[in-house]
Structures are given as C-alpha cells and as structure tokens.
C-alpha cells in the first residue's frame, strides 16, 4: 500500500526548493488530492501505458512542439523526457578500428580481441559481453563527454587477452575523442583490468580512475596523463596501496574508504585556486604534482607572456589522510558507504566527507581539522545506509538504506523530507542513484527501468523497455540518460516554459504566443489579442518570458516559435508607443541624448537570447555532441565553453564562437592558436612552408575574418609558440622553426623550444632576455631529457655536462655551476669543471670540500689526494698541487705528533704549520718533562716544511712570550751572536710581558739602530735612557718629546738642560 510505503510531508511548499512567491516554482497545493496507492513497479503504472484518446487538435499541438500533454507530472511538478540523440553508434578512435562484432552499444572488447574477430560474430560477442563483463560509464559534468570502460566480471573471465581494457572517451553523440589503455603499459605487469574499481570526471574535465589498491590514474579529454599514478592510501610497503571498500569521485576530486575503515581524500586543484588553499589544512597532506616542471612566470608577466593567461592551468592534487579508523574502532562500528559534500557548499570552503555507519548513523569528517562529528540520526534511520548522494545545491542528501527505503534528509540532518519504500520492486540496492536537478531523485534497477521520486513521495516510472544498459549522469538542472543507442534528458520543465505552455494558460506570455501564432496564420484576431495584453500592462513581461522560454527549449522549431512571439510583442510595443518616445522592444532607460536610438533592456535580452540559442544549437549538433542546457551554459560561462570545446578537439567552433561573441582578445587568440595547432597536427598534404603560412593566417586573422598584416604579429605573441609546440609534437620541426621565428614572448618561446628539444636555442633566448628563471628552467629540463634518454645515470650526466659546456651560453654554465656548488655532493661540480678543462677550479672545489670539520680524517685525506690529482691534470696548477701535497704531509705529521705525545692539542688536526709549532711550544710549557723533545720537534717540523729562519724566530719569540717561557726566550736570543730578526721583537715582548728593567734594557741595548732603541726606551718608559739615546743622536725633537711624555720633574729638568746644551752647540 503506497500510503504505508511513502511517508509524505504535509502539502505546501516544495521542500527541495528555495522559498518563492510563484506557485509554479513551488507548485504544491494544500487541496491537491494524493496519488492512488499503487506499487510504482506495476506495469499498469508504466508511462508507456495506453493513453486516453486525444483530439485532432491535441495531436496537432503535440506535433507543433508539444506542451503539457507531453509532460509527466511528479505530483504538481511537470517533467519531460527530451530526446537528444538517437541511433547512436559508440565509436572507437577511427572507422578503421571500429568492428561491430566486438561492440554492443557502450560495451566493447579491448583492442586485443580484434585479431580474434574472425571467429566471433555479433551474436556471440553480445552474449559474451553480457555474461562475462560489466561496463562502467562516467559523464563529465555540464553536458561534457562520457567515458566508457568494459571490465571482466571477477571469476567469469580468465582470458589473458582481457588483462587490460580500453577507456573510450566519446562525445554524447558517440564520436571518439580518445582511447586509453588501462592499466597503462608501465603497470600492466602489476595490475589487470579486473583491478579497476571506479572512474569519474571532475568539474574541470579530469578523468579519475581508481584501482582496488587506491592507485589513482588521471587523464584529460585527449587521453593524456595529467598526474603521475599515485596511491591515495599508500601502505607501509613501498610502492603498494591499501585495499579499498569504496571509492567516490566527485566534482572536486576523489575520496576512498579502505577495508580497514581508513578514509582519505584527494582534491584536484589548479592555478585558478588560491595558493594558500593547501596551507589551511591541518592534517598530514601530500602534494602530487605533474611530471613536467611548471613553466616559471615572473611576477607581472601574466599578460606579457601572450597565452599564459589562456593556457591550460597546471593541475595538482592534495591528498589528505583522515583519522576515521581510530574513530570507528573507539565507537565499535564500521563504515558502509561514503559521499562527499563539495567545498562550495560548506562553511569551511573545504569538502566534507560523509560516512554512513553500521549502527544506522552518519559521521561527518572535516577535511581541514580532521574533526569527526557523529550526527546521531539513529532515531530517523532504521537500517544502515548503503548509498548516499548529494543534491546539486548541497542542501539535501539522498540515502538508500539496507531495508530498500529511500530517505531524503537535509544536509544538517535536522529535517527529513521523505521515506520511500522500494522493496516491492527489488530487494537489492539500485544500480545507480542520482539527483535529477534539485527536485527529485532517480533510481535505476536492471530490467526495472528508472524510478523518479519527488519531494512528497510522488513518483514516476520510466520503464525503458528493450534497453539492456542504462546509465544516469546527474546535472544541476536535469539528468542525462545514456543507453546503448540513445541519449536523452530527464528534466523538470523550466518555470518559464511551464507557465507558457500549460493547456488553457491565461498567462500574458501564453496569450502573446497565441497572438503570434494567429499573426503567422494571417488571422486578424492577433491584433485584438495583442491589444488585450497591452491593456494589462504586462506586454514586456510576456516578451521576457517568451525570450527566456526559447533559450530553454531543444527543438529548433519551438525556439523559433517562441522568439517570433517575443519579436511580435516588441514590434507591437513599438507600434503602440503613443506619445511617448520608445524604441523597438520597449521603453528606453537612462538619461541619454538620443532615446530613439538606444536599445531597451528587452531588446538587449532578446539579442542575447538569440545568440545564446545559436551557440547552444551549434554545441548540440551531433558533430560536436556537447549537450548543454541554458542553465548549465550560464553556470560554466562562455569561457568554460570555449575551454571545453578546445579540450574536445573542436577549436574551429571555439574560434567562431569567441569571435561571434566578441570575447576578450586573449580568449580569441587562444582559440585561434588551438585551431592553427589542429591544422599543423593533422594536415599532411602540404609542405612545411605552406602549413606554416596557413597557421600564421589563422593566428593573425583580424576581426573581419580576413588575413591580418604583419603588424598584428606582435599583438599575437604567444600563439606562435603554442602552434610551434603542436607542430613539434606532430613531427614537423620545419613548421615549428618557422613559427618560432615570429615569436616575441620569452615566456612562451622558451618552453616551446624546450618541448621541441632545442635546448641550446632556448638557453640563447633566455640569456638574451637576462631571465635567470628561464636559464635555470632550461638547464633542469635539459637534464631531465638526458636522464630519460640514457639508462646509465653517469652517461646521462656526461651527456648533460657536454651539452652545457659545448652548446650553452656562459651564463648557462655559470648558473649550473652555482647551483651545483650548493648541493651536498661536490663530485657533480667537479665533474662539470673537469669536463670544461678548468682544472684549477675543479681542484679548488674538491679541496674546499675537505675543509668540512664533520669529515673523518680518512675522508678528508682522500678528498685532498683527489684534489692533488685534479691539480696535476693542468699545467697552470703546479703551485696548487704543491700546496695540497704539503698540506697532506702536514696532516700526516700532525697525526704522528698526536700519537707520539698522546694528546689531541699537541697538533690540532687541520691547523697550519705555524699553528702547529705554536701548539707544540705551548704544550712544552705545560709538560716540562717532554719540553726538550717538543722543542726538538718544533725545529724538525720547521725544517721539514721549509719554514724560513726569520719566520721561525718570530714564531718562537711570540710563542715563548705568550707562554711565559722567558728562559727559553733568553736562550733563543743568546743562541746566535747575531739574531736573524734582530732584538727588537725580543725587547717588545719583554716590555709587553713587564719584565724587569735590567732584562728589558739587556734586549734594547742589543738593538743596533739608534732610532729603534729610542722608541723602545720610550715604550718601556725608561726616560733617562731615552734622553741619553736622544742626546747621542743630537736630536732636540726627541728630547722635547720625552719631556712632554714624562711626568717626572727631574727628567723634565734634565731634558731642559740637554736642550739648552744642544741649542748652544
């Protein structure tokens, strides 16, 4: 009994919608009678049941475009099935590869089966596909392409030919965009097709494929890899992942749940997202970046770089592991299913992960902080939830429970909208459960068709008879239904269309449509009908309604009919202008000088609607296959449409649309460059010069569509590099070189040259621009290319260094040298310098690395010996080699001394010869017993390293004085009749050491130069001796200087007498 199965909310406002004063957007009525209590799966309730007899007028009405008679009502909400494409043949990449015997609708054997097609007819292939395989289909949001993949059922097929499968990316009309082998060849020895778990698209057209051990593969619409394969939940074993229970791809990435109740989420971002987004996450995260390095863009060069603003942004992933395992363990439950609320619908602006539990509740995980909240909905949920999906507006959550009951509840879990029992139709969960816009949930069971459930338990059943495979793709305002041979939309009739086309509608827009139809038929009643609308004062509102309704129709005839009605209304408004000055389309607005020539807002809306319809119809053309509704068009914006067309390999249409709408020049340039890139990629019937000329004409195409002149080349900078890159990838280096000659943007030219393998030219361009970022970027990309080209790392490094030295500019060489000097391994920079035959620099680099105090003696010794060997390679490094060899000998001698005396401070490792001698003397002052031997070793060390005699005496004098060895100092002074350094150093250290007057005088008197003796006496403050010395030199100035410096009156008196005597003389 339906009344027992569907617990309905009180009649009134549609709970799935925002509040509105319009009865048509909130069509629930308090007085509406409930539906009969019948089983929705009974055949008598099929929408294909025999309809009551209709009149000839109603048949004509349906033939003219349909109306309320062609709608199905979900309660009071009108819905319609809109056929888009029929008799679709889902193709492979080319007609030559297509083999009907291997395909059955969306199901298809991999290409490895093609060679077996001789003994497999279409009947056998269809039967085998049905019994041994399952086909997964995913759709790109907003009417984008679909991806289909046929997988073997576990245990049903052990054929080695099915070890891999193919992901076919196709338009909605069946045209192939790409074929992807999966698992890819590099992983086919580890994984098979049976390991693939799920796939789906993000809203940025990234196809995500998740394997059972959480390995994530990513592709764009052309089948190119976006990110390197990575495990979302890596295990402790290197290179392996964690077995998954469920994976859920959503519009912003993918979330997974492991068998061990561990959850993780991978968010896919790009350059359009805030750079600080990942910094806000407090959980442990990993960043997965593309294999190729991002092109450096200097600050402020976003527009100077030509196509940098319009180029495809770099995609990266942020993987966060969530603390769900511990929470489940501490609360003694397990998780059953997973769903993700996108970040645009959360207060934190980060996604939230919803996990249903085995004890009939749901937990919400905050992906920023890791906080887990149990919403405790056990009183409202009678059994575990096995599937969950969010409404497009993020306000409601549809849950399918283990008891076969569909529950719709608010995201805050405060309001339950409905419970709907489906157990009479099937006791198993549906194959698919999605939202159809924001007003209903659609469920699909095998052989039971599609069931649509509305806000109050109202339902519609679409049986889809004779349809083997059916897939539902949710959209923001409808859902796409994909079958083996057709594509259609299930859509709530837009409010503007509903009020306009209801049978017997008395809305002004309906009256205007009727008046327009009468006018087209030549009936005089059209004038009276239009005047009647004018009297209500709602003519312009009726025009706007017809205009809006036209944009939401799919049949071109109906679009024309509605636009004609809007045009008729505008003409009538102009004709009935009266005394007021109006222009065609309604009243003017604003304070303008010439009101008669200013278009009204109504006219502007009409022109915009006509343009939008032209674009939408072009997109829906089967050759394009872009099924976009007006609401979706407004959601992704025209820029998004252009980007998707280019990704779908429709650059010519993207160019036409961007020019037609007068989009910003950067977008038009990017579209034209993409069109030219397609030309150089696929045109093989012309010479390189002809193709390059054709590409240049496309790039420089002016606003009027004709070929541009050479003055436009500078304005189109960046486009030439983009097309040249495409030509290089297509194996046309001649075309690439011709185009790059015209490129003026360094930001675009350098990456293009690098991609073409012209590293030397890229370095020359970067050097001439004095851009250090691009110089370094070129070096790194060249190194990657050499590493990938050679299996042996040493051979790759040798090739790289040879390229840098022989082909790169000196700035490139110096940049690489500077970078290598900052790395821990000195061998890299030494190898570079040796390859450049710069032996002195190479030896200095090696010797400098040996000065690290953290090195042990053996490593230090080996580095110095290597430095000596390097110095020996060059003729101009003889001095450096001799110094290095002597330093090695010194280290050995220091080691001997330390071992001989058993003390580390006798000869500190790494100290110089002078420091070693000083340390020996210092140790002799402390260890009197070994003093004789130590001083003897000092002399031996000096002789061994050829320390000059004068330097040796200076060292000894200073060391003896510092250690208070005055006896040794006297012995040194008396050891020779004539000191090689004189006695001034002796005297000065004696003065500094504050020895007695006799000892100081003894050293000073041995100084042979009178002037020095005078200065030393003054320094020792021996003023009488200083006066005597000055008198001997007969120098009055020195005498006067003593008088000025001395405080003694006796000395001053002596100085005065001496001055008088010297003056008289």
Distance between the termini: 147 Å
Mean pLDDT: 83
Q: Helical residue percent?
A: 40-55%
- For the largest beta sheet, what order do the strands appear in spatially? 1-26-25-24-23
- Low-confidence stretches at least 5 residues in length (pLDDT < 50)? 1-16, 18-37, 43-65, 94-98, 298-306, 578-582, 590-594, 703-708
Tally of alpha and pi helices: 36
Counting helices, strands and paired strands, the structural category is: alpha+beta
- Net shape: elongated
Task: Provide the β-strand percentage band.
Answer: 15-25%
Radius of gyration: 45 Å
Please report the total strand number as a whole number: 33
Q: Note the quaternary state here.
A: single chain
Question: Describe the biggest sheet?
Answer: 5 strands, antiparallel
Word description of this protein:
The protein is of the alpha+beta class and 1065 residues long. It is built from 36 helices and 33 strands. A 5-stranded antiparallel β-sheet has the order 1-26-25-24-23. A 5-stranded antiparallel β-sheet has the order 2-3-33-32-31, with no helix packed on it. 43% of the residues are buried. Residues 1-16, 18-37, 43-65, 94-98, 298-306, 578-582, 590-594 and 703-708 have low confidence and may be disordered.
């Amino acid at each position: 009994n339906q009344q027992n199965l569907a617990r309905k909310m009180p009649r009134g406002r549609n709970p799935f919608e925002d509040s509105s004063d319009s009865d048509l957007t909130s069509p629930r009525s308090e007085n509406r009678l409930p539906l009969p209590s019948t089983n929705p799966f009974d055949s008598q309730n099929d929408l294909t049941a025999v309809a009551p007899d209709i009149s000839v007028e109603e048949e004509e009405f349906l033939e003219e475009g349909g109306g309320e008679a062609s709608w199905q009502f979900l309660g009071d909400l009108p819905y319609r099935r809109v056929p888009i494409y029929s008799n679709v043949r889902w193709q492979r990449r080319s007609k030559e590869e297509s083999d009907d015997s291997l395909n059955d609708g969306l199901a298809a054997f991999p290409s490895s089966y093609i060679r077996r097609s001789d003994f497999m007819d279409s009947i056998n292939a269809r039967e085998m596909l049905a019994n041994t395989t399952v086909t997964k289909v995913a759709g790109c949001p907003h009417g984008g392409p679909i991806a289909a993949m046929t997988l073997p059922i576990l245990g049903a097929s052990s054929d080695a030919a099915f070890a891999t499968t193919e992901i076919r990316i196709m338009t909605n009309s069946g045209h192939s965009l790409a074929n992807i082998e999966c698992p890819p060849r590099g992983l086919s020895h580890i994984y098979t097709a049976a390991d693939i778990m799920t796939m789906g698209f993000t809203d940025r057209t990234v196809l995500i494929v998740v394997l059972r051990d959480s390995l994530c593969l990513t592709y764009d619409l052309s089948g190119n890899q976006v990110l390197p394969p990575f495990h979302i939940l890596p295990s402790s074993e290197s290179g392996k992942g964690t077995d998954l229970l469920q994976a859920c791809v959503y519009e912003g990435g993918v979330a997974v749940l492991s068998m061990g109740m561990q959850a993780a989420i991978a968010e896919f971002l790009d350059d359009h997202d805030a750079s600080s987004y990942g910094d806000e996450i407090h959980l442990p995260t990993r960043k997965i970046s593309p294999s190729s390095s991002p092109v450096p863009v200097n600050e402020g060069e976003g527009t100077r770089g030509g196509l940098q603003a319009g180029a495809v942004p770099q995609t990266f992933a942020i993987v966060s592991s969530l603390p769900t395992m511990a929470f489940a363990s501490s609360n003694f439950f397990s998780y059953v299913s997973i769903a993700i609320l996108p970040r645009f619908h959360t207060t934190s602006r980060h996604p939230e992960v919803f996990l249903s539990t085995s004890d009939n509740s749901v937990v919400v995980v905050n992906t920023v902080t890791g906080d887990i909240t149990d919403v405790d909905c056990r009183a409202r949920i009678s059994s575990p939830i096995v599937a969950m999906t969010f409404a497009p507006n993020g306000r409601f959550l549809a849950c399918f429970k283990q008891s076969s009951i569909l529950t719709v509840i608010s995201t805050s879990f405060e309001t339950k909208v409905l419970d709907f029992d489906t157990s009479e139709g099937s006791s198993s969960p549906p194959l698919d459960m999605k939202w159809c816009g924001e007003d209903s949930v659609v469920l699909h069971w095998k052989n039971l068709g599609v069931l649509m459930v509305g806000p109050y338990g109202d339902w519609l059943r679409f049986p889809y008879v004779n349809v083997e495979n059916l897939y539902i793709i949710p959209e923001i305002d409808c859902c796409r239904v994909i079958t083996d041979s057709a594509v259609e939309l299930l859509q709530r009739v837009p409010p503007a269309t509903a009020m306009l086309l209801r049978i017997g509608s008395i809305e002004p827009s309906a009256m205007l449509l009727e008046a327009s139809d009468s006018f087209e038929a030549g009936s005089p009643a059209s004038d009276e009908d239009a005047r009647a609308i004018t009297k209500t004062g709602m003519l312009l509102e009726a025009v706007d309604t017809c205009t809006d309704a036209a944009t939401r129709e799919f049949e071109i005839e109906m679009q024309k009919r509605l636009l004609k009605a809007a045009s008729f209304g505008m003409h009538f408004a102009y004709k009935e202008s009266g005394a007021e000055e109006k222009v065609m389309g309604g009243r003017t607005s604003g304070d303008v000088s010439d009101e008669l020539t200013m278009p009204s807002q109504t006219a502007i809306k009409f022109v915009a609607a006509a343009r939008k319809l032209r674009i939408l119809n072009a997109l829906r053309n089967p050759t394009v296959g872009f099924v976009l509704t007006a609401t979706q068009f407004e959601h992704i914006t025209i820029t998004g449409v252009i980007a998707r067309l280019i990704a779908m390999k429709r650059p010519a249409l993207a160019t036409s649309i961007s020019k037609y709408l007068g989009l910003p020049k950067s977008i038009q340039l990017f579209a034209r460059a993409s069109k030219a890139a397609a030309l150089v990629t696929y045109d093989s019937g012309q010479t390189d010069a002809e193709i390059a000329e054709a590409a240049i004409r496309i790039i420089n195409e002016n606003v009027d569509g004709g070929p541009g002149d050479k003055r436009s080349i500078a304005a189109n900078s960046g486009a030439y590099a983009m097309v040249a890159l495409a030509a290089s990838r297509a194996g046309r280096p001649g075309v690439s070189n011709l185009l790059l000659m015209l490129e003026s943007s360094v930001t675009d030219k350098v990456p293009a040259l690098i991609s073409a393998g012209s590293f030397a030219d890229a370095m020359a361009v970067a050097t001439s621009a004095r851009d250090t970022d691009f110089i370094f970027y070129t070096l790194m990309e060249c190194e990657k290319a050499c590493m990938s080209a050679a299996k042996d790392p040493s051979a790759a490094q040798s090739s790289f260094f040879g390229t840098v030295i022989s082909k790169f500019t000196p700035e490139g060489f110096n940049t690489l040298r500077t970078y290598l000097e900052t790395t821990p391994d000195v061998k890299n920079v030494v190898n570079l310098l040796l390859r450049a035959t710069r032996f002195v620099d190479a030896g200095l680099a090696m010797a400098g690395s040996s000065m690290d105090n953290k090195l042990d003696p053996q490593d230090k010794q080996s580095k110095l010996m290597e430095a000596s060997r390097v110095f020996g390679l060059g003729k101009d490094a003889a001095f450096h080699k001799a110094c290095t060899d002597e330093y090695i000998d010194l280290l050995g001698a220091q080691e001997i001394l330390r071992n001989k005396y058993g003390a580390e401070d006798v000869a500190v490792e790494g100290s110089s010869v002078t420091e070693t001698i000083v340390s020996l003397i210092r140790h002799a002052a402390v260890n009197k017993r070994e003093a004789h031997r130590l001083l003897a070793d000092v002399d031996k060390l000096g002789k061994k390293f050829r320390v000059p005699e004068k330097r040796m005496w200076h060292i000894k004098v200073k060391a003896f004085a510092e250690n208070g060895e005055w006896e040794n100092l006297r012995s040194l002074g008396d050891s020779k009749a004539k000191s090689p350094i004189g006695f001034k150093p002796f005297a000065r250290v004696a003065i500094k050491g504050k020895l007695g007057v006799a000892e100081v005088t003894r050293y000073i008197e041995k100084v042979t130069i009178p002037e020095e003796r005078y200065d030393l006496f003054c320094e020792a403050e021996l003023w009488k001796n200083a006066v005597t010395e000055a008198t001997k030199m007969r120098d009055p100035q020195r005498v006067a200087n003593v008088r000025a410096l001395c405080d003694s009156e006796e000395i001053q008196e002596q100085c005065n007498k001496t001055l008088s005597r010297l003056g008289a003389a």
